[in-house]
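Review form for a predicted model. The reviewer records the input and the model, then writes brief findings.
Reviewer: anonymous (R2)
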Amino acid sequence: MTSPAAPSASAVSVLDLAPVVPVVVIDDAADAVPLARALVAGGLPAIEVTLRTPAALDAIRAIAAEVPDAVVGAGTVISRAGVAKAIGAGARFLVSPGWTPALLDAMQGSGVPFLPGVSTTSEVVALLEQGVREMKFFPAEAAGGTAYLKSLAGPLPQARFCPTGGISLASAPTYLALPNVGCVGGTWMLPQDALATGDWPRVETLAREAAALQRP
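Model under review:
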């Protein structure tokens, strides 16, 4: 049975693919495909694989090649070289914890959607000046959480965010209720013990719970 193709991250905003984007750290590339299949089966097609481990690029390649229903992206992108490597591996979107003019230029030239990281009003305004309206708010809880994002919605309603950092299943709904939040990033559906033992059914169950969160 052939599954339908995954939604395009360029045709549909990354912020609108699902209420939650799993933020994945993969130590063994062999885990990439079963992990991605579990997340997709649970209803979370957008998967951010962070470039924090030597296995990350191979993991992105494997997911891109073997899990057609997944929209795999690269996270922790912090350099031009990282952008190029991520795109070469098959990443369909890019996420950075912060941004510089050089990194922004590379992401804008990548040909795929991207979410540059911000944690201050000035960074948001600077990106809006460059025509960028979709951003990652990081580290969300440490940078002011929902109260900070709520304060930004008044003067800067054109900016939309994917808050990431310290968010849980319990706190995610308060973020998703904000008008300037499209989705949240999180790791709670990826418990370390489940990853260590390859308990993919548990990951799928937790992913389904996260996917059930509704935006207003």
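Findings: Confidence is low (pLDDT under 50) at residues 1-5.
Further findings: The chain is about 35% helix and 15% strand.
Recommendation: see findings above.
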